[in-house]
Amino acid sequence: MKVIGFGDNVVDKYVDIQTMYPGGNTLNFTVYAKQLGSDSSFMGIFGTDLAAAHNQDTLKKLGVDISHCKVMEGENGYAMVDLVDGDRVFLRSNKGGISNTSNYPLSAEDLEYIKSFQLLHSSKYSYIERELPKIKSTGVPISFDFSDDFTEEYIEQVAPFVTYSFLSCSHLDEIKVKELLKKVHSLGSQIVVGTLGSKGAILYNGTSFYTQAPKLVEAVDTLGAGDSFITAFLLNYVGHSASTEEDELIQEALSKAAEFAATTCMVEGAFGYGLKYEE
């Protein structure tokens, strides 16, 4: 498959070891897609600091195309992360840095470029909501990570443009998760997935609910598990054989997503490539 991530890139700064790792929902998607054998590209805004340079260098090393990215004067996105009782905990962030304070308006040339892909992925922290109507007009399916701090108003704003919706729902009980998935589907998404952390995931396709248990491992670092789950599911579902039955396709894609998410938990950072930093 040929896929593109449009939106956020950050570094996750691990304060306990003074090391920063490339990350961000959309950037992670492009890297995981590359790891899974896809032709992947990233399109977004980089700042002009060490974090921005590290992310660009890493993507180039991994073979992710960044030819349609912009560089703008300012601080790249970052999040401060600590280790608490064996789990990574986000402490604070700069809210995406330059990506939040600057727009990436899509030109006619950009839209033609997007048309060359089979799937575009973005996220709530990418700040590209105003561009969604343009992207939808290309006919390229859109996947979107709503994370866990969505509101009903935000969902109603974004979901009509999204083909594949993902929401972090570990803070909700099963009844509320299913109600939420139905709501998002009614707004236009074909497939809606609620990820539940250590409890797995629930998927709704408009007719049936599907559940997926996690593949349990002795995790080194759980950062990136959700993004890797999303990526593996999408590549297996969207890139499926036309002859595959829907039930079988969904179950197989969910299972492979859980397996790939488990492998991500065995790596420091979202996918490695740490760099020491100084405050």
UniProtKB/TrEMBL annotation:
It comes from the Bacteria. Signal peptide: none annotated. This is Fructoselysine 6-kinase. PANTHER family: FRUCTOSELYSINE 6-KINASE, HEXOKINASE FAMILY MEMBER. InterPro entries: PfkB_Carbo_kinase, PfkB_dom, Ribokinase-like. Residues 14-269 form the Carbohydrate kinase PfkB domain. Belongs to the carbohydrate kinase PfkB family. Keywords: Kinase, Transferase. Pfam families: PfkB. It comes from Robertmurraya beringensis.
